[in-house]
Amino acid sequence: MRTSIPAGTAPAVDVHAHVLLPEVDALVACLPGHAEAGELDARRNGPAALAVSGPMVRERVPLLTDAAVRLAAMDARGVDVQLVSPSPSHYHYWADQETAEKVYRLANEATAAHCSAAPDRLRGLGLVPLQHPGPAVHALDHALAQGLCGVEISSHAPGRELSDPAYEPLWTRAEETGAIVFLHPFGCTLDERLDQWYLSNSVGQPTENAVALSHLIFSGVLDRHPGLKLVAAHGGGYLPTHIGRADHAWSARSDAGAGCAHPPSSYLKRLYFDSLVHDPHVLRELIRVAGADRVLLGSDFPFDMGAEDPLGALRAACLSEADLDAVRGRNAAALLNLAIA
Fold it and tell me: Which pLDDT tens digit goes with each residue over 170-179?
């Protein structure tokens, strides 16, 4: 860790950073279903987006794969610790159960190996096969056995929302172990409606976040698992800034209020959110509704939809010193059990 951190100051901790795993890509490249999944992704994004994304990712491969290059970039940005998660392109929720087990084992082991290059500065998350809820607990246990802090999941799997009762064992095990569950969507089911102007990401990602979190809230998952350590990427998407509409539905309609015990807004204070909202006013609103103790620094390193200067984006919100310190790293340090000098 950088030695310039003043005594008593929490490290700057970025909880939203990715690693690219060529081993996983090689594993699935020629398997049945992989090409079809790629075609679906291409339709959802559109040709113009793919023409930009391909070169963008290729030029960032060293940042995504070489720990030394990553650490130098962290130093340049003033980031002391990253929580590194696999690129969401590695979910491969199309895979059969045998392939899915190979994917999560390889992803967990490769992520742990990447982080082992600087264990004081890099912590990691693994994967679970959401398309196969049965082995998901084993996948979480495997990730933890590699020394990872938890797992990354998407907003849904084909045919299953996060409210599906089949995921109850996963939530139970994550709560028991204190594992972090990082909710990061990949792909939006609005499909070709978003295939221009990169709407698949700018609109699709915050939509998927809002839908997934709403399923967890309204279904009562968070009532049954109050200790679940769930971190939502992209500031939770549209939900935190429009939570009043959810509260109104919960109080006005018997169908909306049937599944959860409290107003939806109250559950925001049980979740964690990264700070990657691209607008200081939205960040301040997120902190207002969720609490300064529930927001964590996030950059989406090193992709182009991320923040090149995540600490600068945080300072632009003109937070109090206490809130700035909390979001900058104190909250994440507590979540990851990091020592504060």
Answer: 999 999 999 9
User: Of the candidates 179, 103, 112, which has an alpha carbon nearest to the alpha carbon of residue 140?
Assistant: 179
Q: Please state, rounded to an integer, the average pLDDT across all residues of the chain.
A: 96
Question: Is the four-CA dihedral 150, 333, 178, 154 of positive or negative sign?
Answer: negative
Tell me the CATH number at 50.
3.20.20.140
Query: Within a domain: residue 318?
Result: yes
pLDDT at 3 over 60: no
Structural domain harbouring 180: 13-335
Are 283 and 235 in contact by the 8 Å Cβ rule? The answer is yes
Is 126 a residue whose pLDDT tops 50? yes
Does the residue 341 lie in any domain?
A: no
Mapping DSSP to helix (H, G, I), strand (E, B) and coil, where does residue 278 land?
Answer: coil
Three-state SS for 89-151 is HHCCCCCCHHHHHHHHHHHHHHHHHHHCCCCCCEEECEECCCCCHHHHHHHHHHHHHCCCCEE
User: Do the domain assignments include residue 285?
Assistant: yes
Q: Phi/psi class of residue 118: alpha, beta or left (left: φ > 0; alpha: ψ in -120 to 50)?
A: beta
pLDDT, tens only, 147-168: 999 999 999 999 999 999 999 9
For 253, list phi and psi in degrees, rounded to 5.
Answer: -130, 135
Per-residue model confidence (pLDDT) at position 1: 43
The one-letter amino acid code at 171 reads W
> Do 216 and 222 touch, CB atoms closer than 8 A?
yes
pLDDT of amino acid 339: 81
- Separation of first and last alpha carbons in the chain: 11
In a domain, 93, yes or no: yes
Number of domains observed in the structure of the chain: 1
Q: Could you give phi then psi for residue 183, rounded to 5 degrees?
A: -90, 110
H helix count then E strand count, the chain: 17, 11
Q: What tokens appear for 254 in the block?
A: 């018997």
- For 111-121, how does the pLDDT look when each residue is reduced to its tens digit (9 = 90+)? 999 999 999 99
Distance CA 237, CA 206 (A): 4
Q: What angle do CA 71, 76, 80 make, to 5 degrees?
A: 55
Is the full-model pTM beyond 0.90?
A: yes
